Amino acid sequence: MKAVFNMFAFLRLMTFVSLAGLLLACEQSTDVEKNANLTQQVTNNPEGVQNHLLYMEGPSGDFKLHYASSDRTLTPRDTLVFIHDTGEDSSSFRRYFQADNVKQKYRLIALDRPGWGKSTYAGDFPSRLEMQSDMLAPVIQNIWERNGKQKILLAGQGYGGALASLLAAEHPNFVRGVVLINATLTKQQTQAAWYASALKWLPNFFFSQSWQHAQLEQVDLASSLHQAKAQFAELTQPIGWLQTVEAESAHPGAYMRLAKDLFQQADIHLTLIEKADNKGQQQYPEQVMRSVQAINIHSRL
Q1: Do the beta carbons of residue 140 and residue 201 sit within 8 Å?
Q2: Which fold does the domain 2-185+193-298 belong to in CATH?
Q3: How many other C-beta atoms lie within 10 A of the C-beta of residue 29?
């Protein structure tokens, strides 16, 4: 009887988790469709994007890392590298590749983090920030070298904001400024689903790979942020922080105190935007680019 009860409980858990995954997929379907359409438009334009694949060797085997660039030349110029959020890939920034006025000012680069988009990994999925930072460091160096060894700007959304901060702190010789777009930087922002930790022990065929990766990143993010706190405190490059907030909670002082607690040595430019959608870069590209321009200027002073 006990075995039957345990099996029934397990089946209930699997049903609940599967339904949760289905709901999450439905929520993301609109953004995925929009990004796919934008990606197709840019890719169909032979002058719109150049794809780069770096073939890497790691302790667990070979893997490849992908990034797309708006500029085919090697002319040194202001270069902006986008790093995407959990559950997305480089296509979430492709709308910027369609803006001629933006491409005239910046070389735009959108990379795929390990395990997302066209980037792969070897062994277990690298769900921790420090793992992804180590894997992406050669990409950042490659972009810097192709830019005539002139420092670049990083812009990260959500999880990508935390990763951009860590990369900037660890590689100040390559990065001169950071823009954070609704960055996930505190324990309160890393509330993974209660069942997410069980994914490490469940068969892979239960869920899509991207859904598993997203949950595993959320599970490990709180401890990753705690480990990265010392590096964040040493970051000296200027930071532009865009944060969407509810109108009643738009208190710049509280957010600035949080920012100064995390980035103790950096000059911070904070912009609060009344919340319409937490996908800041998709809904507010003008504000994003204004912040990029401010950091671009400030980082040269």
Answers
A1: no
A2: Rossmann fold (3.40.50)
A3: 10
